[in-house]
Amino acid sequence: MTHRVALIGAGGHGLWHRRTLQRLSDQGRIEVVGLCDRQPVEPHPDAPLTGVAFYTDHTELLRTARPEVVIICTPPHTHLRIALDVLGSGADLLLEKPPVMSSAEHDSLAEAVAATGRLVQVGFQALGSAALAELRAAAPAGPIGVSGAWWRPDSYYLRAPWAGRRAVAGRPVLDGALVNPFAHALMQSLVIADGFQPALMELERYRSRAIETDDTTFLRLTGEDGQRITAAVTLASEVFIRGEIQVGEAVLEYPTDRLRLPGEAEAREVPGRVGLLENLLDHRRDSGVPLIAPLERTRTFTAVAEAIVAAPPPAAIPQNLLRPHPDGDGYVVAGIDELVQRVASTGRLPSEIGTAWAEQPHRVPLRKKGVTHAQAQHR
Ligand SMILES: NC(=O)c1ccc[n+]([C@@H]2O[C@H](COP(=O)([O-])OP(=O)(O)OC[C@H]3O[C@@H](n4cnc5c(N)ncnc54)[C@H](O)[C@@H]3O)[C@@H](O)[C@H]2O)c1
Predict the structure, then answer these.
(1) pLDDT (tens digit, 0 to 9) for every residue of the chain, 379 residues total?
(2) Which atom of ligand 1 is nearest to the CA of 41?
(3) Can you say whether residue 138 is alpha, beta or left, with left for phi > 0 and alpha for psi between -120 and 50 degrees?
């Protein structure tokens, strides 16, 4: 069975999807019936997608090319409107993360899913990891700590009009270290904490440069049952920490699928990732194949992301802690790698461990609404 597939948002991260489309097309699994972008998109040697029609308006693509499956890879604040059009056209959807901007938008999309009977898979590709499945099966006890320390130059924030912003032309947009680059870490930790229903969010958000949102974020979620997830991530570190999720004595390096379970001396690679588009196609053919990242599984992620971006603006990290990055194009925060590791492993926020420049955390109860991702998953 060949599926008719289209991509809306073919530039930027859309190249990643074009490569998948080229591969699946070469295998004869899909027919690529259209690409859409507001801007011209250069064919890439890895994914020329020769002869595929190009559209500048997604409604024209839906009407003319009549895809059965559509990938949306446009900026997050544009997702809902395009997604509703896709579902209304009768197509199934692979929607990039973060799927929507708020719980209200999540509800609108969930209603459209129910009304149309179509499928929505969300672009959290790390959920297809065999290492994550093994960690969940082992179910180690203990609090969850997430740490990551990356470097993004200042020019990273010039790549798109919404990068580093809270609003564009008066409309809210969604960006920030934990809601965007480290979104996979947050989503993985919510899935690991099976059935986690956050009751309280405590947040310290900081910026090392002149942006409106945070590039260094410390978050502690306390569940209704007292379980805790603490996340500490930065985009302003000279020392690279790829991204670790600790669960008691277990550690998953989530970008590389390296796992160390309690009692094991060293981390080992657990190969195997199921692709989200392939999984969606398999599910269309056989509903017995579960979707890896159905919309409902992301409800808690969206509630937390919404609460993060609604929090007061980030505090500036003092200039005297900033050092020029050796490659130029921006600064790093001295010692930030040690701080994120300490916060993740102790579950204590910078303000609670005597960090001189730390601000008091923003505390907000998270309302319970609808079903949790874990309940939805077991339906
Ligand atoms: N899953 C991942 O690991 C991952 C990684 C990076 C980005 N993303 C997500 O992918 C999405 C796109 O991110 P990006 O950095 O490429 O953003 P971007 O701002 O570069 O936009 C991507 C493309 O969408 C096009 N576009 C914008 N509005 C459009 C519209 N209405 N119709 C058609 N095309 C439109 C832009 O011209 C651009 O070419 C975001 O949701 C982002 O969070 C996911």
Answers:
(1) 799 999 999 999 999 999 999 999 999 999 999 999 999 999 999 999 999 999 999 999 999 999 999 999 999 999 999 999 999 999 999 999 999 999 999 999 999 999 999 999 999 999 999 999 999 999 999 999 999 999 999 999 999 999 999 999 998 899 999 999 999 999 999 999 998 999 999 999 999 999 999 999 999 999 999 999 999 999 999 999 999 999 999 999 999 999 999 999 999 999 999 999 999 999 999 999 999 999 999 999 999 999 999 999 999 999 999 999 999 999 999 999 999 999 999 999 999 999 999 999 999 999 765 434 333 333 3
(2) 39
(3) alpha
Residues recorded for the chain? 379
H-helix or E-strand spanning residue 228: strand 228-234
Residue with tokens 């925060």: 333
Q: How far is the CA of 98 from the centre of ligand 1 (A)?
A: 11
Closest-lying ligand 1 atom to the alpha carbon of residue 81: 31
Q: Quick check: bond before 98 cis, omega within 30?
A: yes
Q: Does domain 139-271+313-377 have CATH number 3.30.380?
A: no
> Can you read off the two tokens belonging to residue 194?
């099976």
Residues within 6 Å of ligand 1 by CB: 8-9, 11-14, 36-39, 58, 73-76, 78, 96-97, 123, 125, 160, 180
Among protein residues, the one whose CA lies closest to atom 20 of ligand 1: 12
Map out the domains of the chain as residue ranges.
139-271+313-377
Question: Could you identify the residue written with the tokens 């319970």?
Answer: 368
Cα three-residue angle 15-89-56, rounded to 5 degrees: 40
Nearest CA residue ID for atom 1, ligand 1: 123
Mutate which of 7, 8, 13 for ligand 1? The one with the most ligand atoms within 8 Å of its CB, which is: 13
Residue 32 pairs in a beta bridge with: 5
- Ligand 1 pocket mutation, candidates 74, 80, 175, criterion most atoms within 8 A of CB: 74
Tokens of 73: 């890879």
Nearest CA to ligand 1 atom 21: 74
**CA dihedral sign, ordered 301, 254, 225, 222:** negative
Distance 301 CA to ligand 1 centre (A): 19
Query: Three-class SS of residue 115?
Result: helix
